[in-house]
Specification:
The complex is a heterodimer of chains A (66) and B (556).
Chain A: H1 12-18, H2 27-48, H3 53-59
Chain B: H1 4-7, E1 24-29, E2 31-33, H2 42-60, E3 78-79, E4 83-84, H3 104-111, H4 113-119, E5 130-132, E6 138-142, E7 145-149, H5 156-178, E8 187-189, E9 202-209, H6 214-227, H7 229-232, E10 236-239, E11 245-249, E12 257-262, E13 269-273, E14 285-290, H8 299-317, H9 329-338, E15 345-347, E16 353-355, H10 356-374, H11 386-402, H12 404-407, H13 412-427, H14 434-443, H15 452-458, H16 468-476, H17 484-494, E17 498-502, E18 505-508, E19 517-520, H18 529-538, H19 542-549
Parallel strand pairs in B: 12-13
Antiparallel strand pairs in B: 1-7, 1-9, 2-8, 3-4, 5-6, 6-7, 9-14, 10-11, 15-16, 17-18, 18-19
Helix pairs in contact in B: 2-5, 3-4, 5-8, 5-16, 6-8, 6-9, 6-10, 8-10, 8-11, 10-11, 13-14, 17-18
The chains are: A mainly alpha (66), B alpha+beta (556).
């Protein structure tokens, strides 16, 4: 289908980096990097989430809107 | 028009046709919650948000960069199909042409005396409910939510920028309230449901020529609106209006739509809304009021929402929208939202079955062809916007089909899902677990330190369309290329001399003049910096400014 040959759009911030291909990591290294990234992220978010999820979510009650 | 002498002889139209440029704007109703005061009245809290922002702008500009809303041209009961609803037949919340007077009686009628007493407000009648901002936007209390209506812009990139500026306006109010020891802190969420049965809107507005038959708009837009959520949905934990079935779906709003076409926005919500308030010269324009979208934090999702919709409207105007008709569009809307695998097929009226992505590709192909034929899509000589919309549209559809990990950096429902799946895998959570509900809610917290979208953004995991500097400027600066420039500049320069403003007027009250002077701004592409920038540069005082604008000698 037309358009499928399109490149992935890159944000402007990363366009420069795109020109400098990084050496491909070994598959297991890639996987563990990705897992590490997600773990880090979840650790950070653990510290950001409101405490007592159940009560907080239950108390978020809105009046109707458009 | 009264203000015509300042702009006489200049073309009113003039945006390149066939692509993604068009007069457009966004409206965001924020979810509002005071965790330390769970019973607080939502309308009252919303008024406090407006009040808090008024304090911020008063600090910012000694002249008082705030102005009241002028309701003269509001026509909420005009139906685009050609009739007007009787006031007596309207729902009370449809009567948006009256200033909301938040007196004790009204609050008590709407929400019960107990809640009012609980809140303990005495001075409620004096609360500010409506502001016009120096960036041309409107900030006000809509029902029981604070709402930011962006200034009119001409392209999807600016739509993203001035919509994101609204989040910073809301954030400034939240910060102000958090610093006030007398008041409970208030959180604002850029989402569309409380996941208990209530939804509130994120709306888009697009200017169209009135000559396009409304039936063509309905026919051309419906299959597109049913399926564009695969790119623009914000994601939601829970299925059904009351979230009674566990699971995850693509759209915040889909389960709240019950009919195909209609005037209402708060009940029996329609895929195509027929409210016909052009806020402009009515015999030339209609304002298409779109209520089916999710509020987006992802800049790319927001960019695609405005950009692709503007392009589909260009197709409809050219009579070139794909000739497809969905069998039972409301059911299809919900089926698409509930199918995160994107493999479900929808039945067309002619019996064919297609996926949501197939339908989006049909619209993409047609839009790309029209844009190519009209020249607006050219990377160098085009209109400067359509090329990027097409690039991102096709790239997103391709990634949704074949590389969902890549799509998660732009598609909001996938970004949120990646976080939720992380929690599900790490902690073995079921979809009914409250922590996943909290991730969904807190995704939309507008505070960068608490909002999970903002945490992903800070880690460079979300693609950007605009940047922090541009968004920061848009908090105080109006777009230069629409009448919002004139409105915003009047507010920030002459705020003390204004008694009101609306989309299509600015009203001055000058000392020494017996009556108010209303400057109509009914042409959305006038009042631009090019047309009125010199006027603002020449005058520091409202009197001589208005005299030149209205073609009078000063002092007359």
């Amino acid at each position: 289908m037309a358009g499928q040959e399109q490149q992935q759009p890159q944000s402007r911030d990363t366009e420069v980096a795109e020109d400098l291909p990084a050496p491909p990591a070994a598959p297991e290294a890639q996987a563990s990097d990705a897992t590490q990234g997600v773990d880090d992220l979840l650790d950070e978010i653990d510290g950001v989430l409101e405490s007592n999820a159940e009560e907080f979510v239950r108390a978020f009650v809105q009046k109707g809107g458009q | 028009m009264t203000g015509g002498s300042a702009t006489a002889g200049l073309p009113a139209g003039g945006l390149p046709a066939g692509g993604a440029m068009r007069v457009m704007g966004s409206e965001t109703e924020y979810g509002i919650h005071a965790p330390s005061a769970p019973g607080a009245n939502a309308t009252m809290m919303s008024a406090r948000v407006i009040q808090a922002y008024a304090q911020v702008t008063r600090q910012r500009a000694a002249g008082g960069a705030e102005t009241r809303w002028d309701y003269t041209d509001e026509e909420p009961l005009h139906d685009a199909r050609g009739w007007t609803l009787e006031r007596s037949a309207a729902e009370p919340e449809q009567l948006t042409d009256r200033p909301p007077v938040l007196d004790a009686e009204a609050v008590a009628l709407a929400y019960g005396r107990a809640e009012l007493d609980h809140d303990g407000e005495e001075e409620s009648g004096s609360l500010l409910m409506n502001m016009v901002l120096g960036n041309g936007a409107r900030l006000y209390v809509d029902h029981a939510h604070p709402e930011y209506s962006s200034p009119e812009v001409t392209n999807p990139r600016d739509a993203v920028t001035w919509d994101a500026a609204g989040d910073l306006v809301a954030l400034a109010a939240v910060r102000r309230l958090a610093a006030d020891p007398e008041l409970p802190p208030i959180n604002l969420y850029k989402n569309n449901t409380d996941n208990k049965s209530v939804s509130y809107g994120s709306h888009e507005n697009y200017l169209m020529p009135r000559s396009v038959p409304f039936g063509e708009i309905v026919r051309g837009l419906t299959p597109f609106f049913v399926t564009r959520q695969v790119m623009c949905g914000a994601g939601r934990v829970g299925l059904g209006q009351d979230s009674s079935r566990p699971g995850y779906q693509i759209s915040q709003r889909a389960d709240f739509f019950e009919t195909e076409v209609g005037l209402e926005t708060t009940i029996r919500r329609p895929i195509i809304n027929t409210r016909d308030e052009p806020h402009a010269t009515a015999d030339k324009y209609r304002r298409l009021h779109v209520i089916i979208g999710d509020a987006n934090l992802s800049e790319t999702a927001n960019f695609l929402k405005f950009g692709t919709t503007a392009m589909v409207l260009s197709l409809i105007e050219a009579g070139l929208a794909p000739r497809v008709e969905l069998h039972e569009p409301v059911a299809a809307l919900q089926a698409v939202s509930h199918d995160t695998s994107l493999t479900a097929t929808l039945r067309l009226a002619d019996g064919r079955r297609v996926t949501a992505l197939d339908l989006q590709w049909m619209y993409y192909e047609a839009a790309a062809k029209l844009a190519q034929d009209t020249g607006v899509a050219d990377a160098v000589d085009g209109d400067g916007h359509t090329h990027e919309v097409l690039e991102r549209w096709s790239a997103t559809l391709t990634a949704l089909d074949s590389d969902r990990a890549a799509a998660a950096s732009s598609v909001e429902w996938l970004a949120k899902l990646s976080l939720l799946e992380g929690y599900r895998q790490r902690d073995g959570l079921q979809w009914s677990d409250a922590r996943l509900g909290l991730v969904d809610l807190q995704w939309a917290d507008i505070r960068p330190e608490k909002g999970l979208y903002h945490r992903l953004l800070a880690r460079g995991r979300m693609q950007r369309i605009t940047d922090d500097a541009a968004i920061g400027r848009a908090v105080t600066e109006p777009p230069s290329d629409t009448r919002a420039f004139f409105r915003g500049r009047c507010v920030s320069r002459f705020g003390a001399d204004l008694v009101g403003a609306s989309w299509d007027s600015v009203i001055f009250d000058l000392p020494g003049h017996g009556k108010l002077q209303r400057v109509p701004t009914r042409e959305p592409l006038r009042g631009t910096e090019a047309l009125t920038g010199g006027l603002f540069a020449r005058h520091r005082e409202a009197g001589p400014f208005l005299a030149e604008l209205l073609g009078r000698s000063p002092g007359s």
